[in-house]
Design goal:
- The chain is of the alpha+beta class.
- The protein has a three-stranded antiparallel beta sheet with strand order 1-2-5, with no helix packed on it. The chain has a two-stranded antiparallel sheet with strand order 3-4.
- The longest helix is centred in the first third of the chain and has 21 residues.
- The N and C termini lie far apart (58 Å).
Length: 180
């Protein structure tokens, strides 16, 4: 993510870039998925508050490192922690090993299971949205799945209670709920 793609007032984030590994190096590449040039996801205010803390943290590093900081506008840029000669410059993309190491620290701090992956946050969000009765079309669009059918096939497996409610509601609407 880049800072200029965070829309603070709308609680929205444009997805335009992705970090990929090329050989032994992490680089930025334009995101192209499903022909969606203007991919925007909407997030809750709590996540926006976390991003504000990240921006303040990053500003502290910029001030501390001065001219060593290479500004690329990244939300999760490499900071000045444990810099090495010839390593990734502060302000650049983080290498996958560094992200993994920080995730392990965060996971331990949050008392999450050792097997809990970063991607599991996304999975939990989608599952919770569907279980709360949110519109699958909107859920699919917000996580950028190509169709609501795909979202339901991947995440809708625990929807027995919802299916029972739907069947009961249908019976009630057509009047067959009174037939004994």
């Amino acid at each position: 993510m880049k800072w200029d793609l965070v829309h603070w007032d709308d609680c929205a984030i444009e997805l335009e870039w992705v970090v990929v590994e090329v050989g032994n190096k992490s680089v930025l590449r334009r995101l192209a998925k499903d022909g969606d040039d203007d991919a925007i996801i909407y997030v809750d205010p709590a996540l926006m508050a976390v991003l504000k803390v990240q921006r303040e943290r990053q500003q502290m590093w910029k001030e501390k490192l001065g001219s060593l900081w290479v500004e690329q506008g990244l939300v999760f840029a490499r900071d000045g922690y444990m810099l090495r000669r010839g390593g990734i410059a502060p302000g650049g993309v983080q290498d996958a090993g560094q992200v993994s190491a920080r995730w392990r620290t965060t996971r331990k701090w949050l008392d999450l299971p050792d097997r809990f992956r970063i991607h599991d946050w996304r999975r939990s969000k989608v599952t919770n949205d569907l279980d709360a009765g949110e519109n699958p079309v909107e859920v699919a669009a917000n996580v950028r799945h190509h169709s609501p059918g795909y979202t339901m096939a991947q995440y809708g497996k625990r929807r027995v209670q919802g299916a029972r409610k739907l069947a009961s509601g249908t019976a009630h609407r057509i009047g067959s709920g009174r037939i004994a």
